[in-house]
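Extended Data, panel c. Modelled sequence:
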Amino acid sequence: MLWRTYRPLAIAFVLAAALTAALTSACGGGKSLILATTTSTQDSGLLDVLVPVFEDESGYNVKVVAVGTGEALGMGSRGDADVLLVHAPKSEEEFVSEGNGVNRQLVMHNDFVFAGPADDPAGIADAEDVLGALQAIADADAPFISRGDDSGTNKLELALWEELGFDPGGEGWYEESGQGMGATLQIANQRGAYTISDRGTFLSLSDTLDLDLLFEGDPKLLNIYHVMQVNPEKFDGLEEDGAAAFVAFLVSDRAQGLIGDFGVEQYGQPLFIPDAGKPEDELSVP
């Protein structure tokens, strides 16, 4: 009699518990972390491979905020992200030295390349080095689209202009997109202009572009990616365990294997080269 009396209540309880469990599972157990990263890792498609594997293995949900490296570091300096995946080593070192970042680890590298119209009006394909390529663009007044967004790519480009001893700002042929890598490539494509891109994003979008890869291979075009936690001792409310788990995942054999395989089947080459555990001073352009 007691079972018959309370059976409807028992069933309701079980159903409610099951629904709660399902919702909890669907939401990753309520555990989430914010990853601030570069547009190149997003636009290339790499994060579409890595993040779901991490989420499945860890139970965390990852909110990806893809911005320029400068903005990603800015988010970290305000405690607005838990973990960063970025590619501007000097700025990263400053970020860590200021106490904003910890547990910085080498993840991977690729390189920057010059993309432009197939007829190459500035003749950069014949340049002896990257500074020669920039000089040829300037001499020809050839349209050039800069990211102009304080990204790692933009930082590299500006450093190269400075090394050349030329400031392109204000030149009629020089335009800043203020956007990510994918959007900048599309603008260069529309304008018939040159731009500097990371190799991964260029290859991943190459089927949609009338741009050719015109210059590559200079050691100055090395593009190195690190992952790091935002310092949980400096900022309250960070997902410390999740961030540490994400760092550990990216340097794990599992993730490094995924990185090394990414792009090989479609492009005949990896879009990124896995580097966990390698001496950084031994890295070179592909």
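The two ends are 77 Å apart (CA to CA). This feature is highlighted in the accompanying rendering.
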